[in-house]
Amino acid sequence: MELLNVRALLMLVKRIWEDDIFGLAAQLAYFFLLSLFPLLIVLVSLIPYLPIKQEEMLWVVADFAPGQTMAFIETNLNEIMSHQNGTLLSFGILATIWSASNGMNALIRALNKAYEVKESRSFVVARGMAILFTFALVFVFLVALLLPVFGKQIGMFLFAKLGLSSQFLAFWNMVRWLMSALIIYLVFLAVYWIAPNKKFKCIEASPGAFFATVSWLVVSFGFSYYVSNFGNYSAMYGSIGAVIVLLIWFYLTGVTILLGGEINALASQLKNENC
């Protein structure tokens, strides 16, 4: 068993090198950065129709994003939204679909490379899948916003009935983080299951999804702590320091996602070898 684990680890390292994971992660980081503000524009434009505020939406981002990037995101978003009109909203939706679908296309190609399969689906099908993933991402983000709002209201009501209102906030903070982790896991699971041009059971995508979820949370919090306490990117890069921090965070996110895909592909390969 120990030899098998060592062999699997060496195979994973070989895959990471041959599939150029770090180069593909840089490509994903570019598309993530490109699609960030169009995506936020669409979400903010939908807020008037939902029982949430813009500040609550940004709090969700702030839970994971490196600290000094939030001022940059909020300032630029407020400036963009101050000039909002119907044309801007339409542009935001179109730009989000296009830029995010490019990112999803890059992710689909990377996962196909991990599974060593070629993209046999037509351009329309592949692009349509990327667009559906974009809409799914918006939907998941809205669910991630709405669940805490309604969950807190329901929890306050139930705890008040039980006479435990004072204990609710501590309980709620734990539940909120668990809900966020579960939503992230389900997103990764769906991407790993649907995106590759290969048919397999949903459960077979769970190892990579679990790894990506845990790793992404650890990397996000670790990088945020480093930036807040040690990394002074503003001194090195000046006014674009926040952009550099955001780009590095997106790069680490891309590495994490691709590693999860490589783990699933390796598990599939080892399973076929043992059959």
Automatic annotation (TrEMBL):
The keyword rRNA processing does not apply. The chain crosses the membrane at residues 21-50, 88-108, 129-150, 170-195, 207-227, 239-261. It is a multi-pass membrane protein. Pfam families: Virul_fac_BrkB. Keywords: Cell membrane, Membrane, Transmembrane, Transmembrane helix. It is found in: Cell membrane. Signal peptide: none annotated. The keyword Isomerase does not apply. This is Membrane protein. It comes from Anoxybacillus andreesenii. The lineage of its organism: Bacteria, Bacillati, Bacillota, Bacilli, Bacillales.
